[in-house]
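idk why but the lab printer keeps eating my pages so im just putting this in chat instead. protein + pterin cytosine dinucleotide:
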Amino acid sequence: MTIMEPRKHGDASDGTVGGRQTRFEGNLKVTGGATYALEYPLEGLAYAILVQSTIPAGRVISVDAEKALAAPGVLMVLTPDDDLGLLVASDWGGNRPENQPYYPLPRQVQYNGQSIAAVVAESREQAVEAARLICITYEKAPHVASFNDTAAGEGKVMDSLTSGWGDAEAALAAAPVQIEGEYSTPREYHVAMEPHGLTVKWDGDRITVWEPSQWSHGMARSYSEWFGIPYENVRLISPFIGGGFGSKGAALAHGAVAAFAARKLGRPVKLALTRPQNFTNYGGRAATRQRIKIGATEDGILQAIVHRGASETSTYADWPEQTGAATPILYKVENFSSQHRVVPVNAVTPGALRGPGKNPSAFGIESAMEELAYKLGIDPLELRLKNYADHDYQSGKPWSTRRLREALTEGAEAFGWSKRSHEPRSMRDGKTLIGWGIGCGTFPVLQAPSEAMIRILRNGRVEVVSGAIDMGQGTYTILAQTAAEVFGIPVDQVEVHLGDSRLPGSAIAGGSMLAGSILGAVHKAATAARDELIGLALNDEKSPLRDTGANTLTFSGGRIAAPRDQGPSLTLSELMAALGRDEIEILRNTLPEGATAQEQHQAWTSMAKVQGPTMGEYSMHSWCAHFAEVRVDEDFGTVRVSRIVSAFDCGRLYNPRLVESQWRGGIIMGIGQALLEEGLVDQRNGRTVNNNMGDYLVPTNADVPHIEVISVGIPDYGASALGGKGVGEVGIVGVAPAIANAVFHATGKRVRDLPITLEKLI
Ligand code: MCN
Ligand code: MOS
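predcted complex ->
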């Protein structure tokens, strides 16, 4: 457990919900005071490293480990010949095949860079050296390197992602104006600063895992199921995470290998993935392509959208990167048809990366909308406002709140959009072409049950306790603000304990659902604890507040008193002392009353109880509009993003400082997606060529311009207990098309395949 000491900042209202409190754990992270999963100095550590396949498809015939086993310091070599005796764990939904063996080091090779052996030694250097001595013989099979290979075929249609209404083909054919384009995005990777890895230790049949995690409870469940031990016997600890962006939501094969080795050796084991291994041990964003056809009237009223998309998946699991995720909800259209396919290739199964689905989807539809605007000679802002969706045409439900119109108009105002001249190549500064473009974005509101414990201590401090995760978004901080507000105390009187699967159950820090979900639980528990304290203070004969005759108490400025200052006022610690209480502890969850232990376990360790955006009466989403300015060198085709203004509707903001940082972080990732990021695959062997941070380019400070962010949201109490909508992911959605649209405006060249590199412009 970790106790956070916030730095004092600004005035007291910063420490309440809606305040601009700085990050509780920020100081620790930047001063080296935060301990990460690979930094626990356990006694007797052994070091594991993975050996990966060098072919993209086939079978391991034999592994000759003789030399490796004889090398200095080597304790163990694991290969496909070893039956680790593990069982397959549940999937995200909490479903589990019965008694199916799990092979984290499989004989069947499905992709280049798949883990097939592991070496454990006294030191990491010895393990690395021994791994070099392992000799693997393969039987190769033909492979499909990417979904652009002819051998890849068309893939399979995902029925669950097929949607439509009206008669899209007929309306398209009848529309006086039509545009059509194919848009594609490459493989993209999380490249979080902190690589994956873990430290793991057994005590009898109990296991402790220090591992960066977006979901302590969900990952603990996988360990318990792999090893056939009770859930209670697993403790997954993850108080600090150096970025996850979707990659740290699930326990992975390397975790199983390290845990197995630790048990077998009777020693704690540390396993760190190398940076290249971080490109193949789990999947990034799948490569996508989509064809969009839009039919419209001469004056720009949409008549039909026909969308056909595809994304890469692996040969052993289906992961759809839904290219049609944003298409149906951004605009008003009476005739719509969308279909998505997955195409198996020899690569690791892709995964969630900030804004999954919505992100590539927005690249398609938002590029296409501007293509239509130029074809019609209409201002792209005007075209969007003309086709504003007054309700969700897909679900037929009203929006809970949708301030996209305000985002567009207020963003345009702040950007100075009205000064734009419409024609491409019409704005320049000497040899520099200037272009402006818009991209809208959206992300659904997901809601999950959560649990939290509040402890009021005799020393007047309040503890907030939850197994929830802070990977940098600000969970520690907003939980403290919520409790501080309920008890009317300064925020530095609150301690927050997070990141431990032994602590109360929580939603995943994923799908931008944690803040709204966990604050509901914290607020409920804190209010209940306050009510209990009020009850004691008014009724206990030892209480100085008993004789006030009041029927409630106020909590403010760190003091508790009867309303209208009747009688004394006490601090929390004075009241606790007067009552003779050491502690008041309250646990609350947001499940329906009477949920069984089994249902609770299911709620914290699976996605079974997560509510989608249209499961209730309304359709609930966050929204944004990005305005980008680019400057393109006319001779060299180099693109600089020189300015971004983005306006967001994320409902109520629990902490605007942190929200602005989330939005900016997403926008910066969007700049990378637009101009730099691209996982390159060697067609001959299916290998990711640029599997390191030197060659897989992400934006540096020099690539990032001034970014102005604006909130246009209003509280949405349908979306969450405290009125906020999701913040963490929507920021990246729509940035890449805004930049692509700006590049078109600057140069007259439409780049439909990301990233926009200079050779595509000259
Ligand atoms: N917040 C707020 N008001 C709201 C909603 C959120 O003040 N109405 C602020 C809070 O500071 C909260 C943060 O925004 O902690 C994010 O809240 P939310 O949108 O609920 O997202 P989650 O807490 O579920 O975080 C996950 C989300 C996802 S899915 C990815 S991917 C992502 C992201 O957060 N990865 C991140 N932001 C990240 N930020 C950092 N630093 N590192 C990552 O890996
Ligand atoms: Mo975020 S990609 O849902 O962790």
